[in-house]
Amino acid sequence: MDLGVLWFFIIAFFFVGYFVLDGFDFGVGMSLPFVSKDDTDRRVVINTIGPVWDLNETWLIVAGASLFAAFPEWYATLFSGFYLPLLIILIALILRGVSFEYRHQRPELAWKRRFDNMIVWGSAIPALLWGVAFANIVQGVPLDAGHNYTGTVFDLLNPYALLGGVTTLLLFFTHGALFLTLKTDGDIRDRSRALATRAGILTIVVAASFLTWTVLAYGTLPAFFLAAGAAVTLIASVLANARKREGLAFGLMALTIGLAVMTLFAALFPEVMPASNDPANSLTIANASSSPYTLQVMSWTALFALPLILAYQGWTYWVFRKRVTRTHIDGGADAGAQPVPDAAH
């Protein structure tokens, strides 16, 4: 296989990992006001992702670094043309991370509510804008002969891209609610299950609309089958949640998000940044990739590093696999973003 093609799929894998893992982080953050009745509830919700949220975000760093090294032309065009949306995502992620660390530093409820609001918005804004960004990449943007973006920020806010943003927002929201059913008990678990059911029904409608539009307008045969698989697993996830099979529901939702992201990359292939104004200006795997030597060195590095990353991530989730309960929170200090062992177990 051509190394450029190989790295296209490796980067797709990194983004699948990021959206699946940080996706439920976003969903938990957005679910905070819907499933919490008091500060102890909010501490339970936050502690479900306390040990893993920063680890999940490293997938974005790896994806961005790999994109820069393997496809420098794609990286340059994407980050210069989408500068403002990506900057807003970065600011939202910073504010969310700060909130996890600072909300428990003072006892006043008003202090905690401010940071809780930052968690909610710091989760919702990236969840929306990531969908907008990837939808624009798939449908194409105006590029000049030097592969520079020639549109405006408002050109990115087109109907297809906004529908993509709402789709990722709802997918992550439902994903987070399902994660809470898996990691909590009692009233929070019941409220999370009910929230996941309501959100899941709306997600089915919106996601089906977006994936259908994608396949009909930009899709290929592989994209069609991937989109069909995403639709089936999404419906199955909502049904499993209704039957109180939270582990199965969460796994199916993770698979749904993975298939949806792969649908976008399949619709994109073999281009990496289509030009909507002139196909001759499009960036493809061939004209955007690094030299064969660079890709060869990266391939050997990934061969040794990737299994270690996956093993460490799996070990972390195994260590913090148990449910977070109100009893554990009431019995120990507020651990904020890094729960004490009792709060995590």
UniProtKB/TrEMBL annotation:
Its localization reads:
Cell membrane
* Topological type in the membrane: Multi-pass membrane protein
The cross-references to InterPro entries, in alphabetical order and at most eight, read: Cyt-d_oxidase_su2 (IPR003317)
Q: Name one GO biological process term.
A: aerobic electron transport chain
**Membrane-spanning parts:** 6-32, 74-98, 119-140, 160-182, 194-215, 221-240, 247-269, 297-320
- Is this entry keyworded Cell membrane? yes
The UniProt keyword set, sorted, is: Cell membrane, Electron transport, Heme, Iron, Membrane, Metal-binding, Transmembrane, Transmembrane helix, Transport
A single GO CC term, please? cytochrome complex
> One GO molecular-function annotation for this sequence?
electron transfer activity
RNA-binding in keyword set: no
Short name of any one Pfam family annotated for the protein: Cyt_bd_oxida_II
Instruction: Tell me which family the UniProt entry assigns to this protein.
Output: Belongs to the cytochrome ubiquinol oxidase subunit 2 family.
Kindly provide the name given to this protein in its UniProt entry.
Cytochrome d ubiquinol oxidase subunit II
Species of origin: Mycetocola manganoxydans
Q: What is the lineage of its organism?
A: Bacteria, Bacillati, Actinomycetota, Actinomycetes, Micrococcales
